[in-house]
Q: What sequence folds into this?
């Protein structure tokens, strides 16, 4: 074992967010290491999405600490620096591609936006990179000048992933990336995601209620109920040998074909 | 003689004071859109209510006023605004660019070079250059605040992807002093180079949107572009049929219903003075 472990990429301590007297998420703590995929599962209303929004900076948490890369206190960052972090080092894949794409802008423009936001000013290079990324997410490069409206749901979701990964982020937040897709499209998307995550060495926090998704993608798993983390550990360990009563219920509720 | 029923230049002194404060702030922060309490004017929105208020706030009795609409001194918009200030302020008016101390304009910068001491007032319909890409005002303000202007290039990218070249030909965005991205009102991009380092003071007034912004004299205003698709000012590839100028911006005039057309200078004062000089 290496004595000098690198510091965690993301350290979260006692993160709490309430909506009035109701708990959104409470006292969530974890470490995320480089190249690690963390799954967050739980039923609807268990606080998964609140937690993800707080982590990604869409919602201000009431208390707690989020430390990026060992040194940067994300919640104390000035807004300009936080937004720069969000569009360079971080990425966010929404459940509904319409929330993450500009529907009136062509596929190439969608992929290029983050590049241009980061300062790219050479049309030919932006277009070449967009073409390359469309190929990587298995979209025909001929469709670079089509608008996302003309794409199927699965293609829109793949386009959203390309748009997010084009600047080479280190941490990707995903909110139910396979929700609303039919099973065969889901399988293809998962396969693609798994390949990209492994090849790019991405760290991922993925929120889902689909245990099959985390089984395929996640290294580690957090189970949430009523805003609190009730169990966490290696994915296979949690799913094969659930300790908490709620996790046991969750695992046993999966329909078998 | 000023009509006694009006204060000088129509607006009351407190309103002019409010406008001048907004103008001073706009001059101090070039390219930044300063909110102001726009008044109802005796003309409809879209007719230059913002420009009229800025002009009214700048006018003094010694001023010589010129009003142009698409470069022309004799179109409805120009004539009625000029008459408005003759009636309410009693100032002298002119059609000669060089003689004017204040020029209110819609959609053009005069061909005759402007000089120090002149004020050019633009009528602006939509002051926000990011508006059609990002409809939320809260978000566009944040983008200006944090200098997040990548989206502006997405628009230009889309132009090239669809048309093979930057097809935006008017309201072409400029970056002011390396800071704010500004919509120079719907002037043709042919006029954009005149914004950069111009010795005149340029004021922009948007009445309905309640914004004033400014380019002080000798301010850098660079048109946005791509390294491999540089900014190019464009005009119709003709010479003026009346005065023969090959360098001025042209209007295309349909002359009959059998495809007949002619190209004439959009700046009527420029065209007339060239024809008079040639005689």
A:
């Amino acid at each position: 074992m290496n004595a000098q472990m690198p510091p965690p990429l993301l350290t979260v301590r006692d993160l709490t967010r309430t909506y009035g007297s109701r708990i959104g998420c409470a006292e969530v703590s974890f470490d995320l290491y480089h190249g690690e995929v963390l799954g967050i599962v739980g039923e609807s209303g268990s606080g998964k999405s609140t937690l993800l929004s707080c982590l990604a900076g869409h919602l201000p948490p009431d208390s707690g600490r989020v430390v990026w890369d060992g040194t940067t206190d994300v919640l104390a960052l000035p807004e300009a620096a936080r937004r720069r972090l969000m569009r360079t080092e971080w990425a966010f894949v929404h459940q509904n591609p319409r929330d993450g794409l500009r529907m009136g802008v062509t596929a190439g423009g969608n992929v290029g936006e983050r590049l241009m936001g980061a300062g790219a000013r050479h049309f030919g290079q932006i277009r070449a990179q967009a073409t390359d990324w469309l190929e990587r997410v298995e979209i025909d490069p001929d469709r670079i000048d089509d608008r996302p409206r003309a794409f199927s749901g699965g293609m829109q979701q793949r386009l959203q992933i390309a748009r997010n990964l084009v600047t080479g982020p280190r941490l990707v937040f995903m909110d139910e990336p396979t929700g609303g897709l039919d099973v065969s499209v889901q399988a293809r998307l998962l396969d693609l995601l798994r390949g990209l995550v492994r090849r790019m060495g991405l760290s991922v926090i993925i929120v889902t209620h689909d245990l099959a998704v985390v089984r395929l993608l996640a290294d580690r798993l957090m189970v949430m109920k009523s805003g609190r983390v009730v169990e966490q550990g290696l994915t296979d360990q949690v799913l094969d040998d659930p300790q908490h009563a709620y996790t046991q219920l969750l695992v046993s509720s999966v329909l078998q074909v | 003689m000023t009509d006694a029923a009006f204060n000088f230049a129509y607006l009351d002194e407190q309103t002019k004071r409010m406008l001048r404060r907004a103008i001073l702030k706009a001059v101090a922060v070039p390219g930044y859109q300063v909110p102001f309490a726009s008044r109802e004017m005796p003309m409809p929105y879209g007719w230059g209510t913002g420009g009229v208020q800025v002009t009214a706030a700048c006018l003094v009795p010694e001023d010589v006023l010129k009003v142009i609409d698409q470069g022309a001194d004799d179109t409805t918009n120009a004539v009625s605004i000029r008459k408005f200030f003759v009636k309410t302020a009693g100032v002298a008016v002119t059609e000669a660019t060089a003689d004017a101390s204040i020029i209110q304009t819609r959609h053009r910068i005069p061909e005759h070079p402007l000089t120090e001491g002149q004020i050019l007032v633009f009528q602006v319909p939509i002051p926000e250059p990011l508006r059609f890409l990002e409809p939320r005002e809260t978000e566009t303000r944040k983008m200006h605040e944090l200098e997040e202007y990548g989206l502006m290039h997405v628009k230009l990218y889309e132009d090239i992807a669809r048309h093979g070249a930057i097809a935006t030909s008017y309201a072409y965005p400029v970056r002011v002093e390396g800071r704010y991205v500004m919509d120079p009102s719907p002037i043709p991009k042919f006029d954009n180079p005149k914004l950069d380092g111009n010795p005149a003071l340029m004021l922009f007034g948007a009445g309905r949107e309640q914004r004033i912004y400014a380019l002080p004299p000798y301010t850098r205003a660079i048109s946005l572009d791509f390294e491999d698709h540089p900014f190019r000012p464009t005009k119709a590839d003709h010479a003026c049929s009346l005065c023969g100028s090959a360098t001025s911006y042209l209007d295309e005039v349909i002359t009959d219903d059998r495809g007949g057309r002619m190209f004439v200078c959009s700046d009527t004062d420029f065209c007339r003075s060239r024809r008079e000089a040639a005689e």
